[in-house]
Amino acid sequence: MSLPYAADAETPLTSAELSVLESQYQKELASGHASTQSRFNLAWGLVKSRNRDEMARGIGLLTEIYRSDPPRRRECLYYLSLGHFKMGNFDEARRFNALLIEREPNNLQAQSLQELIEKGVAREGYIGMALMGGAAALGGVVLAGLLRRRR
To answer: What residues form the membrane-spanning segments (predicted)?
Structure first.
């Protein structure tokens, strides 16, 4: 099975498409047990979403599959990494992607995702530094104002 590049996950399913996956999953669940394939399909659709709650639900389903169905771990690793990346959970994204790269060092999708994760980590670091710098500058202004009042 060929896995899509991370850019594919940026294109969410339509409401109708996601509804079809949800209906299949719920139908199977109501009859006693949802198949791994139905759970995976729904999880995949949810991870593609732009809605954080849906992405988190997709990650939850993928985690269940990862734990309960060892033959599906490879697929789950990629989508778990992708889902965590989209949610900004870079440490988790890195961890799952590293497991996939360990198993498949030549996996182009995982390598591509690794680059995106590292860029996200760097961007987050720059934002953190900017916030810290801004807070320090604000603290300096407040302190200077307090010192002037005491004089």
So the answer is: 126-147
